[in-house]
Design a protein that fits this description.
Number of strands: 7
Keywords: Methyltransferase, Phosphoprotein, S-adenosyl-L-methionine, Transferase
CATH class: Alpha Beta
CATH superfamily: Vaccinia Virus protein VP39
Bound molecules: S-adenosylmethionine
Helix content: 25-40%
Number of domains: 1
Strand order of the largest sheet: 3-2-1-4-5-7-6
Order of helices and strands: HHEHEHEEHEHEE
GO molecular function, one term: methyltransferase activity
Distance between the termini: 35 Å
InterPro entries: SAM-dependent_MTases_sf, TPMT
Structural class: alpha/beta
Shape: globular
CATH architecture: 3-Layer(aba) Sandwich
Radius of gyration: 16 Å
Number of helices: 6
Largest sheet: 7 strands, mixed
Protein name: Methyltransferase domain-containing protein
């Protein structure tokens, strides 16, 4: 099975979107709500239906770039919030091909776990390249054993430490305290700062 554009587009079209929470994830919402600078240049990769993006627009953030490989969720987001994003900030593209000016912050929510695990080292490098020095990658990782089954593919605190520590200062990596019930105990909230 290839986890490519066609795969994700078909899952959206067939409404096989078990990951979709229908709203912003509470740990990420809490993090967003304490960000004072609304001018931060922020990337939401693998943003799906864009609940975090919508929450940020409502909170006054002005410099958001939303990227997904599948057109379906981007078209829906554009329809839901027609005046919120210039077209160039809603990007339909493979994350690994994206080139742009560096960001202050990148928000991760069930994107890492949706990728084939062999791409993890490439993900770390790409995230590091897309951030300004001192820029942050923040969000949630799953905390359950990595097997052949997925997406979502699991991982552990130890694995994330080993992967990210060469390129990031690991400021926070701890059990999320306000996960939604079905994910309680299986999410790690993190803030990693680019070295
Ligand atoms: C599990 S969904 C999560 C969506 C959203 N972040 C959420 O939490 O609801 C994974 C998302 O990543 C997108 N995706 C998968 N591979 C991608 C890639 N290489 N580049 C960009 N987006 C990708 C999919 O289209 C899908 O929207």
């Amino acid at each position: 099975m290839k986890l490519n554009k066609q795969y994700w587009q078909e899952r959206y079209e067939a409404q096989r979107t078990g990951w979709d929470m229908g709203g912003v994830s509470p740990p990420i919402g809490t993090y967003i709500d304490q960000l004072a600078n609304k001018d931060l240049r922020i990337l939401l990769p693998g943003a799906g239906m864009g609940y975090e993006a919508a929450h940020m627009v409502a909170s006054g953030f002005r410099n958001l770039t939303i990227l997904d490989i599948a057109p379906y969720p981007l078209e829906r987001l554009q329809k839901r919030l027609p005046d919120s994003f210039p077209p160039e900030n809603l990007i339909e593209m493979d994350f690994f091909k994206y080139q742009g000016k560096p960001f202050d912050l990148i928000l991760e929510h069930t994107f890492f776990c949706a990728l084939p695990p062999e791409l993890r080292p490439e993900y770390v490098l790409k995230m590091s390249q897309l951030l300004k020095p001192g820029g942050k990658l923040a969000g949630l990782f799953f905390d359950f054993p990595l097997t052949d089954k997925g997406p979502p593919f699991g991982g552990s605190k130890e694995e994330y430490e080993a992967l990210f520590a060469p390129h990031f200062h690991l400021r926070v990596l701890e059990r999320a305290i306000n996960s939604i019930k079905p994910r309680a105990g299986s999410e790690l909230f993190f803030i990693f700062e680019k070295k």
